[in-house]
């Protein structure tokens, strides 16, 4: 067991359940397509296509991304809306439509006035900003598009969700690199649990497949040339993806009173900082975040049956995350199933925590644990049960979803199956 001390549980007055969820990703345009692909061990990682329409100007050293295929925004948004919405904002609003529809919410003025909207995004609308810079520096234009600022601002996803449904409660965007939407869901959970907000719309979105962003990742030398193999001895790096996911969170008693069906209960949230290196992870910070999530949930490590790992398939992350899990779970680590869904939907940066929260919730709900795809051979430094290459039928009561970011910022969500 860990030597890191647990803090006391801080249960609020409300139990919090998820009553709706929505997804758009390289695996599909809704939660059903996303989940079917995960349990079928189908990859959304493919050769570069339409998003990088200037790739010939500066070729990349890698060929694969996890791009949303066949998305036609005109089917979901009118032309005026689209003129104000970068692709990342579309990827926030579209899954919010699905989540709110599934939740069956009937908006009243009182509910609209207090509902919170918390989203996460690492890069926001930098694709729109790059288009402006391209015109300035490459085509020698003297001005950029007049809506470049509202298109590029990172809070645009949150703002468009509030405007579409008239939501006037606490609303903001968190940008903590790859932990952004994990932190957003955790913050929303605490707002609902404490009673500050009677409901929250929370998640995140990202659209990083533009040339400048890809060249920046290329320079980091952490991108795989073929595919994403988390925890495998021959892993060679991450695959950048795009997409978004949104959850509806509300108090259990309110959900049951209006006849909604809880999909899962969110029971804990842990957030820590490594306070170490800007890019090199440590095991201590992630371990403390998992410990805090367990303590916040009021459960012990032996009750956890599944962890959706951060699992980026970089050498340092997978080794460090394994060490953190073993620190927290001790001998029970051998009995915990662990998988990385990034092996199929790619690393969606600020949206990763939300996509993986959805994967965790659906795993609890279905009794099927998603696999780690593309796994070829074990790494002694990653000696966990990583559910290689095929989903596993296994009922689990409690699960964690890990998100660890550059800058040493960590977010861990704890979920409980709804019986």
Strands, helices and their partners?
Blueprint: E1 16-25, H1 31-39, E2 46-47, E3 64-65, H2 79-83, H3 87-103, H4 109-114, E4 116-120, H5 126-137, H6 148-152, H7 156-165, E5 171-174, H8 180-194, E6 200-206, H9 211-220, E7 243-251, H10 252-257, E8 264-273, H11 284-297, E9 304-308, H12 315-329, E10 337-339, H13 342-345, H14 352-366, E11 368-369, E12 392-393, E13 398-405, E14 409-417
Parallel strand pairs: 4-5, 4-6, 9-10, 9-13
Antiparallel strand pairs: 1-7, 1-8, 2-3, 6-7, 8-14, 11-12, 13-14
Helix pairs in contact: 3-7, 8-14, 11-12
Q: In words, what does this structure look like?
A:
The protein is of the alpha/beta class. It has two domains: 17-257, Peroxisomal Thiolase, Chain A, domain 1 (3-Layer(aba) Sandwich), CATH 3.40.47.10; 268-417, Peroxisomal Thiolase, Chain A, domain 1, CATH 3.40.47. Helices cover 34% and strands 19% of the residues. The chain is built from 14 helices and 14 strands. It is globular and about 60 Å long. The relative contact order is 0.19.
Strand residue content? 15-25%
CATH top level of the largest domain? Alpha Beta
CATH architecture descriptor of the largest domain: 3-Layer(aba) Sandwich
Shape from CA axes?
globular
Specify the oligomeric state.
single chain
User: Termini, distance in Å?
Assistant: 29 Å
Q: What's the number of structural domains?
A: 2
Uncertain segments: 1-10
What name does CATH use for the topology of the largest domain?
Peroxisomal Thiolase, Chain A, domain 1
- Quick one: how many beta strands? 14
CATH superfamily of the largest domain: Thiolase/Chalcone synthase
Order of helices and strands: EHEEHHHEHHHEHEHEHEHEHEHHEEEE
Helix content: 25-40%
Radius of gyration: 20 Å
State the secondary-structure class.
alpha/beta
